[in-house]
């Protein structure tokens, strides 16, 4: 009897990472005509096959991304919990176990037969809710660097994270230092791209 690979439960936590990456891709691309192809490539990079049909529901998919980004901007824990409950009620179905081609039984949170948008909304909302429930603070944010604005997952151990990367934190500190000594001027950003910011 062939043994199918198991989908680890941690994959649902990884779905939060995927959600943040997709949210930032949509925010950076705006209404770019290449957005559909970029999202398809991104999803396939996360192991999701046959994402070509995403282009047929791109506007709806982008709207969900904006909705999730608004969640990431909430810093109050109680408000975040209420918004998560609202999103779960709107986008999620009763959890069920499903076995798909190439995978053993694993959890699904969307209605059977739904498209990419409902699947992404449901899995992302559940993943963010799981992160929220396992943290003593809101485990995400929007980068405080006004020249950035990317969403991020909070990995700070003692204090809440304010920036998506050490690069943004350093840039803001240097900018503040220059302002304090009266030199003014913006700090040159010599990095080629925001893609892959860790």
Quick recap of the structure?
The chain is mostly helical. The protein is built from six helices and four strands.
Overall description:
By secondary structure, the protein is mainly alpha-helical. It folds into two domains: 132 residues, no CATH class; 46 residues, no CATH class. Helices cover 47% and strands 6% of the residues. It has a two-stranded antiparallel sheet with strand order 1-2. A two-stranded antiparallel ribbon has the order 3-4. Strand 1 and strand 2 form a beta hairpin. The protein is globular and about 60 Å long. The N and C termini lie far apart (42 Å). The N terminus and C terminus are likely disordered.
The number of helical runs is 6
Radius of gyration: 19 Å
Q: How large a portion of the residues is in β-strands, by DSSP E?
A: 5-15%
Task: Outline the low-pLDDT stretches.
Answer: 1-12, 184-188, 190-198
SSE string: HHHHEEHEEH
The proportion of residues forming helix, as a percent range, comes to 40-55%
Mean pLDDT across residues? 82
Shape descriptor reads globular
């Amino acid at each position: 009897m062939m043994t199918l690979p198991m989908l680890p439960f941690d994959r649902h936590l990884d779905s939060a990472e995927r959600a943040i990456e997709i949210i930032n891709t949509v925010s950076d691309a705006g209404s770019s005509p290449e957005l559909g192809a970029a999202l398809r490539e991104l999803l396939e990079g996360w192991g999701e096959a046959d994402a070509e049909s995403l282009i047929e529901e791109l506007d709806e998919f982008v709207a969900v991304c904006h909705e999730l980004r608004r969640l990431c901007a909430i810093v109050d824990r109680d408000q975040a919990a209420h918004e998560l409950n609202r999103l779960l009620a709107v986008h999620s179905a009763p959890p069920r176990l499903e076995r798909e081609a190439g995978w053993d039984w694993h959890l699904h949170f969307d209605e059977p037969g739904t498209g990419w948008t409902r699947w992404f909304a449901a899995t992302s909302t559940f993943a963010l809710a799981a992160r929220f429930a396992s943290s003593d603070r809101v485990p995400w944010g929007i980068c405080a660097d006004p020249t950035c604005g990317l969403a991020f997952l909070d990995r700070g151990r003692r204090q809440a994270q304010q920036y998506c990367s050490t690069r943004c934190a350093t840039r803001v500190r240097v900018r503040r230092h220059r302002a304090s000594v009266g030199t003014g001027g913006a700090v040159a950003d010599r990095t080629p791209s925001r893609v892959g910011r860790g």
